[in-house]
Structure formats: C-alpha cells, structure tokens
C-alpha cells in the first residue's frame, strides 16, 4: 500500500504512571501525541507510551510482553482512529528520537480520558484470556461482538503532567558537591517555599533523572537533573523557620 508508513512506539517506564490497583482494574498509561516525522531517508510516525515500571516487567516474559504491545496497538488505533498492521519487531536502538523530546511529549500529552464506569472495564485477566484464544497467525486484537458492543476498554489514559495554572515556580538553587578529585558525589537542591508552614504540605517525587516538588495550588518545580541519582538514597529536610526545603540526592 503506497499510503503505508512505519510507526515507532517508544515504550517506557515512568514511576509517575500508577500501577494497576489489581488484575481487575484497567492498565493506566500516559501517551504523548502522534507525531509525523519527515527526514531525508524516510517518512514515519512516532508516539511515546509510558507505563508503570511494574507493568513493563512483563518484558521478561515474551508472551506477556507481546500481549502488552498488542494492547498498546489497540489503544493507538482507537484513540487516533487509524488502522495498524499488527506485525512488529523490536528495534535494535533503545529510543527513537531524543530523550528530551520524549519527556516533553509525555509531560504535555493529550487531554485526559478517564473511564468512569470501571465495572465495564476489561480486566487484565480477561485480556489474557481473549488474547490466548486468538489465532496469532492473524495477530489481531479484535474482541468478540458482545465485548465490542459494550465499548470495553483495556487501558485508561491518565491526566497529562502539565503544571496547574495556579502554581508558580519557586526560587531554587541547585549545586553539585564534588570530592577532592572533582568527582561528582551528590546534588543538593534548595527550594524556597515562603508560604509553606509545614512539610506535610509538600509533595516530592524523584526519579533517576528528574525531580518534582509540589505544594498544591501554590508551587510546582520540575527539573531535569544534570546527573543520574539514586532516588532510594535521597533525603529531604524542611526548615520551617526559613521556609526552605533541602533535597540531597547521591549521584549514581
């Protein structure tokens, strides 16, 4: 078909995407926009899809990962009203495009689509049953007629990660502490929160390469870190008198 072109799907882990509460709940995801890219060599489309790390642990089991990939195909088809071939291969490179582009895509993704009638959701266990029943030679995710007519969803899309209008970016200072040999040891981030009276008002989220400090309806600071850090060993203290939050992040 002359209208066919390649679609690259960046499947990534993101701790800020919640895990399914149980096998009876749909799988949450965060999706960026479907983008068309034209370069000298080819014309292709690209989309970024983020799942909770526990969901992508399935890649250790090829059958489980195949189920998730085909489920992702169905989400893209329904959300963007396009038809996909369900023949795919895992690319040798780990990311299509730049990491910066992918982060911007996911943080400013499309409007949220919440599935309110959870009782009508197809569960993870039911999904596996349907997929096992299908003929892999056809490699489709078409559900049987009674399921399709009830508009059952396998996945729910979470809200985008955009900053709320009410929040402002607080003043901050980021420094890298080094040892005698100039080797980076830790990152220290001081955030000024003058309108905060208690640490209980602060919400802190840290990954290996970024940090988010949020005080709902007051402040929100989101930074990409210059070095990869050990989020498990990170500490944070709040000076109530000065209204300053100090975050210490050991560098990996």
3D structure, described in words:
- Residues 177-252 form the PIH1D1/2/3 CS-like domain.
- One of its GO terms (biological process) is box C/D snoRNP assembly.
- InterPro entries: PIH1/Kintoun_subfamily (IPR050734), PIH1_N (IPR012981), PIH1D1/2/3_CS-like (IPR041442).
- With 252 residues, the protein is of the alpha+beta class.
- The protein is built from 5 helices and 12 strands.
- The protein has helices at residues 53-56, 62-80, 99-107, 124-133, 145-149; strands spanning 6-13, 27-31, 35-38, 43-51, 155-157, 172-178, 184-192, 203-206, 210-215, 219-224, 235-239, 244-250.
- The strands form 3 sheets. Strands 1, 2, 3, 4 and 5 form a 5-stranded mixed beta sheet that branches. Strands 6-7-12-11 form a 4-stranded antiparallel beta sheet, with no helix packed on it. A 3-stranded antiparallel beta sheet has the order 8-9-10, with no helix packed on it.
- A hairpin with a 5-residue loop joins strand 6 and strand 7.
- The radius of gyration is 21 Å and the shape is elongated.
- The model is unreliable at 109-153 (pLDDT under 50).
Q: Could you tell me the number of beta strands?
A: 12
Low-confidence stretches: 109-153
| H and E order | EEEEHHHHHEEEEEEEE
Q: What is the helix fraction of residues, given as a range?
A: 10-25%
Q: Nearest-angstrom radius of gyration?
A: 21 Å
Q: For the terminal residues, how far apart are their CA atoms?
A: 48 Å
Helices, by number, come to: 5
Broad shape: elongated
Strand portion = 25-35%
Largest sheet: 5 strands, mixed
